[in-house]
Amino acid sequence: MTFTNAPVTRLLVLGLVSASIGASMLDVKHYFYISIDTHLWKYRQFWRLLAYQLCYTNSTEVLFSAISLYNLRVVERMWGPRKYASFLLVSSLLTAIIPPMIMVVLRPFSAGFFNYMPAGPTPIIFAILAQYHSMVPHVYKYRVAASQNSQANESSGVTLSDKSYQYAIAIHLSLLQWPGSILGAFVGWVVGNAWRGGVMPASLISWRLPGWMVGLSSHRRSAEFEGLRRRLEGENGPVTGASSGVQSEGQQAERRRTMGQQIVDQFREAL
């Protein structure tokens, strides 16, 4: 796999896989999901709101989430690592609180059906997927026919695009531990579209992490600008050099002319 120009995605995938493997090996997976009545109501373990998106508790979810994050790295390439990391942080904070709070409201009316919030950053993945859906155009479309009869109606069948497989992987991820995973995916999709549509406060949308946190130091930026300036000068160098050469030759010829020749030339122009 290649993560060229996507350092945040690389860190996210490696961290998610490592945390999931570590939680399984250390037998601490029970700390990374939320049971509304037990963890929030009875024991007041509100720290789980910030912990449940750090890893997954089964290998299937780890696989599909890693594939999804890798395929969505194009969003980071279009935004840059600083904006992308800022978006991830804001989205993670919102999706950490909103889905469990919705479950707290729905649980009394659902006979305990909405009581389990599974572990994993599925809401964050769907927030990124909302940006992918809006920003990245499809390259081609194809139709899956419902019948082998060539004389069938052209409107029959399903029209898909090259982006459909990405949506299929994400939807499958959201169905693995429903209804909690479906609720998290829905909230993540809403948060992603709220960010893009300007529904959130402008301070959240415009906020950015410090550049050094994603490896963008002021020295590096100045070096990039210096390299750009040198490339531009290199492109304009031959023309500038030629003009300066002509100008210097003219100045040298002017210096070689004597004062008498200059006076004679002035009288010629006057006559």
UniProtKB/TrEMBL annotation:
Residue numbers spanned by region Disordered:
234-259
Show the InterPro entries listed in the entry.
Rhomboid-like_sf, TMEM115/Pdh1/Rbl19
Just give the chief location class: membrane
Q: Where is the composition biased (Polar residues)?
A: 241-251
Q: Which UniProt keywords apply?
A: Membrane, Transmembrane, Transmembrane helix
> Which PANTHER family does this chain map to?
RHOMBOID-RELATED PROTEIN, UBIQUITIN-ASSOCIATED DOMAIN-CONTAINING PROTEIN 2
What protein name applies here?
UBA domain-containing protein Ucp14
